[in-house]
């Protein structure tokens, strides 16, 4: 590489950094909740980049709060233990033996791995779960189903699957106030002391709502919400989401995601976005470019 090539390269890098200025201003002091899904953790280089992106957000004066999943990692451990799992509406039916495995994987292995990615990037992350500091008091989730004719409604028992009943964000504020990055595993505790397995999307939405976060980013393994022709929809109002749900365009695993985004927006989060975590630097692209790369759900 010649000296003039090097100068051109350096000038290009400086130009790109300078482009971030308006976004750095917009998000100075902002709280951004990032849901890091188990599928998005797959590739090592992407995971390391994720850790560096979160450290960078902190470095430029943003307060990132990470909520992680770990569905595929739980599946792998259950397979090793020869335990079968079943799902209802994307939720893992969790009996007493299984909730121990879920807690071990989510609040143990995965939580420490995600905090480690950020720590290795030079920031200070602290891994906690919803049981710590009273962060998430959970109640048993009830689900009902209808018979094919839609006449009879039946209650389904999902075991120790919970939903947040009360979120106490003091532990999050204590950590961010001390310059640390909270990394939260989606496990909660019931009023009776029982441990509950909670869908990570739901936890991310509940924490974003309780914090009054500026943004919620949901990192997944699709480009965002796709239309009938498989084309990315860049932004959706709550009413438009309801219409796409009603006509079946939004289905399966995308339902809890859009429900979470809607709930967060209703609780005052200014924008909730479903982002493709397979794209390198997905968080930076979403926050620091006009329009972002995923689907923004807004009021
Ligand atoms: N309209 C839609 N746009 C995008 N994905 C959709 C849509 N409707 C259903 N899906 C499904 O939702 C999935 C994303 O949810 P899920 O697999 O639960 O994500 P994660 O594992 O990241 O929580 C997609 O892979 C896709 O199969
Ligand atoms: C109740 C329930 O289904 N909990 C999830 C918790 C992990 C999760 O949500 O992980 P992802 O974000 O990677 O899918 C589970 O057991 O898989």
Automatic annotation (TrEMBL):
* Major subcellular location class: cytoplasm
Q: Which GO terms describe its biological process?
A: L-arginine biosynthetic process via ornithine
The Swiss-Prot or TrEMBL record annotates one GO molecular function as: acetylglutamate kinase activity
The protein's site described by Transition state stabilizer is found at 35, 257
Q: What class of enzyme is it?
A: transferase
Family as reported in the entry's similarity comment: Belongs to the acetylglutamate kinase family. ArgB subfamily.
Q: What is this protein called?
A: Acetylglutamate kinase
Q: Which reaction does it catalyse?
A: N-acetyl-L-glutamate + ATP = N-acetyl-L-glutamyl 5-phosphate + ADP
Its Enzyme Commission number(s) read 2.7.2.8
